[in-house]
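Course exercise 7: structure representation. Students receive a sequence record and must write out the corresponding structure in token form. The form below is the worked example handed out in class, using ACYPI002213 protein (269 residues). Read each field label carefully; the graders check that inputs and outputs are placed in the correct fields and that the protein name is recorded exactly as given.

STUDENT ID: A-19
EXERCISE PROTEIN: ACYPI002213 protein
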Amino acid sequence: MIMVDLYVYLVTLVFAIEISAHSDSQKDIIRLECNERCHLQNETTNHGGLLCNSECIVNQCIRGCALWNEALSSNCSKVCDKFNANYISQSKLYCIAGCHDAITLYFQRIQFEIGPLPSPTLVPDSLFDKSLKLQWRGVKRKNFKYRVQWKLENNQENWQYCQKETWNNDSIIQLENLRPYTNYQFRVVLLLPWAGVMQLVVSESSVVISTHPSKVPPSMTPEIVRTIPADFSISVTWAAIPFPLAPILSYHLTIQEPTKEYPIFKVRT
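STUDENT ANSWER:
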């Protein structure tokens, strides 16, 4: 019994060391690649009249490259402030530049490792008036946050987050509180937080998915926007209901004189 417990302990210890080594290795790779860019930055900088000379620029940039991981939970300016208390403020700019370069490399490596995110698809027989299920065949990595966004058809820019989504087995997504009889497109978003700002990696958009019509008719009525009376006719213009919730078969127009309590004319369009 004692030997079994010892074996489990040793396996757990080795596993933890391997994870830590992999994480440290990634940090070193990013730092070293960032350091190489610092020399390029020095070559493209005009040193005339600057208080930070060539050696200062490279050293500050390398310092920023080493602080990138700490800056993920804060920002480059704060971590460079901490390590530049005895330096002139102008030199801090090169520390910030190196830190930003390293973080850019970090996000580029993540996107390269993840690759393109596939588009979600509709699960058969899951479509209703206010809900549906999507299947996403991408790999959902641990310690990363994924969300689903939607937009209306023919609206290229206005992506919004789904208010009620539930992930099942990392591949099936239940979406609720949708609008009936509406054409949607969906995409999966990987959120990479940095200093309170989300860096987004987005999938391809889904095909257009139309929710089923509602069994309850809309409570709103069309708004009359213009009336043009003539001798023997009246031209009436109204605004269509933007989200009718179901197909509109016809409109009924009723004309009534103010002095009478009953309609004098009805028309169906």
